[in-house]
UniProtKB/TrEMBL annotation:
Domain Protein kinase: 9-294
Enzymatic reactions: L-seryl-[protein] + ATP = O-phospho-L-seryl-[protein] + ADP + H(+); L-threonyl-[protein] + ATP = O-phospho-L-threonyl-[protein] + ADP + H(+)
Protein name: Cyclin-dependent kinase 20
Molecular-function GO terms, alphabetical: ATP binding; cyclin-dependent protein serine/threonine kinase activity
EC number: 2.7.11.22
InterPro entries: CDK (IPR050108), CDK20-like_STKc (IPR048002), Kinase-like_dom_sf (IPR011009), Prot_kinase_dom (IPR000719), Protein_kinase_ATP_BS (IPR017441), Ser/Thr_kinase_AS (IPR008271)
Keywords: ATP-binding, Cell cycle, Cell division, Cell projection, Cilium, Cytoplasm, Developmental protein, Kinase, Nucleotide-binding, Nucleus, Serine/threonine-protein kinase, Transferase
Length: 295
């Protein structure tokens, strides 16, 4: 890793602040183009090398897809590392918040296809993102959606039954039910649950499940989808937190009532095959890309 003189980059405004670092807009004077510079700490608060930082760098270096944010350069600075990334002026979150120009049905279809293609690429490469949400889906000047923020990403080993993953991942509103019930033996299906929630949010304009605590999050999911049936998800009772709390029985809300403005059943069909209790029954990213919604 070469030490680039920061004078090559003309720093401008701060454009974001996340758990894992601050992001600034800058001009790359050599290439004469806008870039984003994410300053990340190399050590965590305990003085150890930050795994999140290393994961993010490694993942971005491994990936080569038009739907994954591009890392251009890395240089050391006083507090850690600066990652030079392609500049993306927008996020899906800011697009969803814009009342002036709401997303058209064509844009929803286009963005969701790009999201699933990026996800299929990651999963083929054995990478779980574990924090898919509108704020981590960036939109370029040419209207291309790219997956970003790999601070929680992990390599996934489907053949290793004994491997445990942290349940303290993903943003609550997009967190899969198996994680909410404390599972540490989950897989790439947690990303597809989150993608289904993002698609639902694009179609509805508001989040599908917006809980303020993990218990409320589960309660809202159960109220909406109905109580999980053990014949459809027999593994549920083995999850660590399953017996810790009982929820009232619920029949759920019909999908059509959750999406009153959707005139095409095909949109709802895709959501309903992703937002499914049993992770084994969720569509895979490659299957989502092939869904008739995109034909």
């Amino acid at each position: 890793m070469e030490d680039y003189a920061p004078s090559r980059y003309k720093m401008q405004d701060k454009i974001g602040e996340g758990v894992h670092g601050c992001v600034f807009k800058a001009i790359d004077l050599q290439r004469n183009m806008e870039v984003a510079i994410k300053k990340v700490a190399l050590k965590n608060k305990f003085g150890n090398i930050s795994l999140n930082t290393l994961r993010e760098i490694k993942t971005l270096q491994l990936c080569n897809s038009e739907y994954i944010l591009n890392i251009l350069e890395i240089y050391p600075d006083l507090t850690g590392l600066s990652l030079v990334l392609e500049y993306m002026p927008d996020t899906l979150y800011s697009r969803l918040k814009s009342e002036m120009n709401p997303l058209s049905r064509q844009q929803v279809r286009k963005y969701s296809l790009m999201m699933f293609k990026g996800m299929a690429y990651l999963h083929e490469a054995g990478i779980m993102h574990r924090d898919i949400k509108p704020a981590n889906l960036l939109i370029s000047q040419t209207d291309v959606l790219k997956i970003a923020d790999f601070g929680l990403a992990r390599l996934y080993f489907p053949d290793e039954e004994a491997r445990l993953y942290s349940p303290q991942v993903s943003t609550r509103w997009y967190r899969a039910p198996e994680i909410l019930w404390g599972s540490q033996k989950y897989g790439t299906a947690v990303d597809l649950w989150a993608c289904g929630n993002v698609l639902a949010e694009m179609l509805r304009g508001v989040p599908l499940f917006a809980g303020t605590t993990d218990i409320e999050q589960l309660a809202i999911i159960i109220r909406t989808l109905g109580s999980p049936r053990l014949n459809e998800w027999p593994e549920l009772t083995a999850l660590p937190d399953y017996s810790k709390i009982r929820f009232p029985n619920s029949v759920g809300i019909h999908w059509d009532n959750l999406f009153p403005s959707c005139t095409h059943a095909v949109e709802i069909d895709l959501v309903s095959n992703l937002v499914v209790y049993n992770p084994k029954n969720r569509l895979k990213a490659t299957e989502a890309v092939e869904h008739s919604y995109f034909n």
